[in-house]
Amino acid sequence: MPYTPTRTVLMDARTAGPLFMLSAALLFTLMSTIVKLMPEHYTVWHLGFIRCFGGMLVLTLVFSRKKNPFKGHNIPLLILRGCTGSLAFFFVVSALRLLPMSTAVVLFYSYPAFAALFGFLIYKEQVNRFQIVCIGVLLAGVAILFDFRLSASALGQAMAIMGAVLSGFTVTVIRTLREHNGPVIIYFYFCTMGTLATLPFCITHPVIPGSAVEWAMGAGIIATSVAAQLLMNQGFFFCKGFEGAAYMSSETLFAAVVGIVFLMEPVSWHLFAGGLLIVGAGLAMHRLGRIQTK
Fold it and tell me: What are the record keywords, sorted (predicted)?
């Protein structure tokens, strides 16, 4: 007799996705805050090396004892996902260095639109009129945050959007990778590619933490990024690419609170209006996805 999932099992699956994603969003906010507060002599390359090499060490020590940590399914796609994910991180860190944290994070969370686009291009996922409207609203929110013009912070804005494009692609291909790979191996390849990209610069321009506070901040980046990435990768076992991205958009709220309350960042109507459109459009896309799968 074929097994039929019970209502309790289905409810657990529906609950697991949001819980994983919201937990990851909170931890990513903590990581972004630490990155924002790191001394200026730590460049994007140094911060990337701290996260990626530290992540490799943690994953190897905790999860890869007595087995080959590189053993996975569809190695070329794992490498590609690692490269695009690493590039996305570098772009976002650059944006965090150039823009207020709340602005950089909100701009970055335009990536549900790009996840929907890549879902259509790669998996031929249907994009209906309502989703097109949501994407248009989301991009209008981005335009409001740009104040409809390129300003002195244009480089930071461009970095955030490039990070969003690459993240949209990255979360989309996780759909294929998660079929035969767990969250650990997916993140391990991200850390490997990021380490290889940043190692040459860090060797030629080394920076050694000069105080216990800097050591603690580096450890904080590693701990929060590993935990957040594993939670997010696990969450994509229960969500489509744009659904997971919609849940992760809660990071914009967390970042806005941290930026305004603790970092004393300026408050403007652009942030609230643009952020509302971006997050609202992402949540609407998620809601539509739930309706269609019932």
Answer: Membrane, Transmembrane, Transmembrane helix
Dihedral, 154, 156, 158, 160 alpha carbons, nearest 10: -150
Number of structural domains found in the chain = 1
d(CA 190, CA 195): 9
Question: Does the residue 12 lie in any domain?
Answer: no
Residue 159 lies in a domain: yes
Residue 8 lies in a domain: no
Q: What is the pTM of this model?
A: 0.81
Q: Identify the H or E element spanning 293.
A: helix 269-293
CA distances from 222 to 141, 143, 216, 228, 229 (A): 32, 33, 10, 10, 11
Q: Can you tell me the distance from the alpha carbon of 63 to that of 256, in angstroms, rounded to the nearest whole number?
A: 34
Range of the domain at 259: 17-293
Task: Judge whether 198 lies within some domain.
Answer: yes
Structure tokens at 166: 């690459």
- Residue found by looking up tokens 């949501």 in the block: 134
Binned at pLDDT 50, 70 and 90, residue 265 comes out as confident
End-to-end Cα, the chain, rounded Å: 24
Residue 160: name the closest of 168, 189, 268 by CA: 168
Looking at residue 113, its amino acid is: A
Residue 214 burial (CB count, 10 A)? 15
Residue 23 has pLDDT above 60, yes or no: yes
Q: Are 172 and 122 in contact (CB under 8 A)?
A: yes
